Each structure stands twice: as structure tokens, then as C-alpha cells.
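Hi F.,

I've been meaning to write this up properly since the lab meeting, where we talked about keeping a consistent format for the predictions we share between groups. The idea is simple: the sequence comes first, exactly as it goes in, then the C-alpha cells exactly as they come out, then a line or two of notes. No screenshots and no reformatting. I'm using this chain as the first example so we have something concrete to point to.
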Amino acid sequence: MTTSRGIDVSAHQGPQDWAEHKRDGVTFAFIKASEGQHSRDTRFATHIAGAKAAGLVVGAYHFAWPNQDAKAEAANYIAAVRSHAGPGFVHWLDLERYQDGRNYKGRSAAQIKTWVAAWVAAVEKAFPGQRVGVYTSASDLAAGHVPAGLPLWYPAYPGRSVDTYAEAEKRAQPKPSGRSPQFWQFVGSPLDRSVCYMSAADLRTWAGATTTESGPPKYEPYPGEKFFMKDGKPALGKSSPIFTAMGKRLVAVGCGRYKVGPGPKLGAADVASYEAWQRKQGYTGAAAKWPPGPTTWKALKVPNV
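Output, unedited:
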């Protein structure tokens, strides 16, 4: 599987030689910006400036306290990153329980999931068209804390058997709770290192494809629209290997709405998944509705009809 390499840092790490990281093959860097309702990372501005100067794909993360106010925490993060976030910037919610549980205390799984959705919605509203995902553990996913369809960055440390990029790249992509994380953080010392399940070029496209300078993209008629439609409606029940391939790609990019499948027949979950993908690509309103447009179909990398 094609991958790219990255790191993440916070104030706990000292100054970084970002040019050296790039020479070592690092493509992306995610940097802590904030925590809770008021805390800011003291090295964020320095780290993000260095990573940008090195030409890396960059993003920031916010450490979550789900027993505080979601809107206040989102506002703290938004204020911390606003002057740095632009085309190709990726936003992450770091959803992990402190060992003593103090940031989850008093909250049910359902309440945490609602909190996550509210934080993500606020950040998406503040940065239209930019990627917003969740960094979280197997236990959080198993508990149902993360809404479906969000990009995932997943930490799991096999130990000495996987402590280099080369070793991580030989491993199969993790599938916690049946989800397909786009990023796997495989080691946490002496520096947090992750692999992304996209090539460097595809990662840049994924990170930047939804950001536009002149508003959302306009509706594009798809050359194979008749294939996907029947009497002006989604051709539900139509069978084709194309739908299986499409569904697998939608799962891979974090837009799968499937409980079972995807399968060879077009279903409502396929339509919902593809519309989520079109929204991720920056389309809104009627332009984000089914059927596929040629730009989003090409970006999804499914063979043409």
C-alpha cells in the first residue's frame, strides 16, 4: 500500500530541524495548538512556521475536554490557528482520555459523541472546505465516541517490532472497530511518527482539494449520469462492480456510511456516502447531491463508467 510519512509535535518537543525532517522523507506535520477552553501551546507558532517553510503538509490539533463546553473549546482552537490556517491546512480533534479520566469525567458515551460532533461542526464552519478529523484510540472508537464519516488519525503502538517507518509500511492498515483510519501513529518516542495511507501527492490533493479562493465549486454534469440515475432519481438497486469499487474507496477516504457492505448494488448508503465525499471536496447545496461529478469521481480514483 502506498504511504507517506509524518510527525506531530507540541511544546514538549524542542526546536525542530524541519529541513532535515523533509530530507528524511517526512511529508506532513501536525502540531498542537490548544487544549480545553483556554490553554494554548506555547511552541505552536514556531513549529507551524518551520513546517510550512519546509514545504510540508501541515495541520493542527486541539486536545479535547468533553466535560467542558464544546463551543468554547472550538473557539479557543479557532482563535489559536486562524492566522495560520489556509489552503491545505488540516484540523484535528485530539480525543483521548487522561489516565485519571479527568477530561471525560461525568460524561456518557453518547454525550461525548454529541460533543465531538459539535466541536467538528464549529471548526468546519470557521474554516469552510478544510479537512477536519479526529485523532482517537481503539477504546474511544469501540465506545462509539466518534461520528461516522470523519477522517481518522489512529494511535496504536506495536512496540519494538514497529518502530521505524519502513516497518510500519510493511504492516496492514489498522481496522479499529471496522473503521479505516487515513493516518496511523505507530510510535510515540522519541518523536511521534505516523504513516498516511496516501502517496505524498495524493495527501496534498486530499488536504487541499476542498479549499477554493472563489467560493464552492459549481455543479458539473457527470458524463455517466444516466448510469447512476433512473427517472431523475438515484438508480437504487442497480447492480455493478463499479458500486463495490466506489464503496470501498468511500470507506478508505472516511466517507463510508455502511453498516454492511459496500456491495455490488447501489443503495441509499452509497448515495449518502458519495454526497459526503462531494461535500468534502467543497461542493454545497444541490451541487453536492448525487450523482457524481467528474471532478469528484476522478479524485475518488474509481474507474470511469
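Notes:
Residues 241 and 264 are 5 Å apart (CA to CA).
The two ends are 25 Å apart (CA to CA).

If this format works for you, I'll send the rest the same way.

G.
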